[in-house]
TrEMBL record:
It holds the Pfam family PilZ. It comes from Endozoicomonas numazuensis. Keywords: Membrane, Transmembrane, Transmembrane helix. The chain crosses the membrane at residues 39-58. One of its GO terms (molecular function) is cyclic-di-GMP binding. It comes from the Bacteria. Residues 9-91 form the PilZ domain. The lineage of its organism: Bacteria, Pseudomonadati, Pseudomonadota, Gammaproteobacteria, Oceanospirillales. InterPro entries: PilZ_domain (IPR009875). This is PilZ domain-containing protein.
Amino acid sequence: MSMVPRGKERRSIMRHQLNEYLTVYNRNTLREMGSIGNISSNGLMLISTVPVLIGAVYSMRIMLPGRDEEKNFVDFDARCHWCKPDVGPEFFDSGYSIVNAGHDIIDLVEALKEYFSFTEC
């Protein structure tokens, strides 16, 4: 069994923390599932008020603000791999792999990465 040093990232794909949270909805019911904690083109962490079923595939939608009050959205399916209580007792964290990473989700991840990156001027 290999030990990963404390504070070392164990993922091979870098995930980007979000300073502002984006809401994720169930695509079939349009009910709120939770907020994105971090995201990559292959997966995401969701912060929710209820635990979710591990192993289930969820139909998800992220609503994006649009120009002239039009709503844009990104639809995708994601499989839950883990769920645990958050630091705050009223929340749960759950980890998902994106099942069908289309261009929309990849473009969203790139846009968020660019938006939340700090570059020298």
